[in-house]
Write a structure and sequence with these properties.
The chain is mostly helical and 179 residues long. It has 5 helices and no strands. The longest helix has 45 residues. It is elongated and about 70 Å long.
């Protein structure tokens, strides 16, 4: 009985970690929306140069790194729970949401919508800031370097978002094979 209580405690701890990481990931996105809105407002309100907007691609890159890290940990913990605890759950007689056929069928679409939503939230302000600063393409060497490095940051955001999505898909397939 003591082993079962220990296992249930580990399971609950991992589930709590998943929920905490989901909240942190969502709060990170909300922070990005707030800071991007503030940065967009500065040139409008104070008449500052629009090259201030080129901070946004770098913020987007940083936020996408944080989100990718959270997504990978969330997926790894979920796979861990479903692979390592599957025999114990069957032995104890626990039927859980993680094992449901509905979740397996629904998860594919939910993950795609989430990834697309994250990418849209991160890229839309980035693309607008790059568009606002397109005259910098023909500017000084420093301006061109700033513009193109910001553009590179936008492509890195796309790469990180797609890589995170692919990693989660692999974890889901692994989960299905082991359980």
């Amino acid at each position: 009985m003591k082993n079962e209580q220990t296992i249930i405690a580990f399971y609950n701890t991992a589930r709590t970690e998943i929920l905490t990481r989901i909240k942190l990931r969502d709060n990170t996105l909300l922070f990005f929306i707030g800071i991007s809105s503030t940065i967009f407002a500065i040139p409008l309100v104070f008449g500052a140069k629009s090259n201030l907007l080129l901070i946004i691609p770098y913020l987007s890159l940083g936020i996408s790194l944080i989100i990718a890290q959270h997504n990978n940990i969330i997926g790894s913990l979920a796979a861990y729970l479903n692979t390592e605890f599957s025999k114990v759950k069957k032995k104890v007689g626990i039927s859980h949401w993680d094992d449901s056929v509905f979740l397996h069928d629904f998860h594919r679409h939910a993950m795609l919508y989430r990834s697309f939503g994250h990418l849209t939230i991160l890229l839309l302000p980035t693309v607008i800031s790059l568009y606002q600063n397109k005259p910098m393409i023909n500017g000084t060497c420093g301006e061109m370097l700033l513009f193109w490095s910001s553009t590179l940051s936008a492509f890195m955001v796309i790469y990180l978002s797609v890589a995170s999505h692919v990693t989660r898909r692999r974890l889901i397939k692994l989960k299905g094979k082991v359980s």
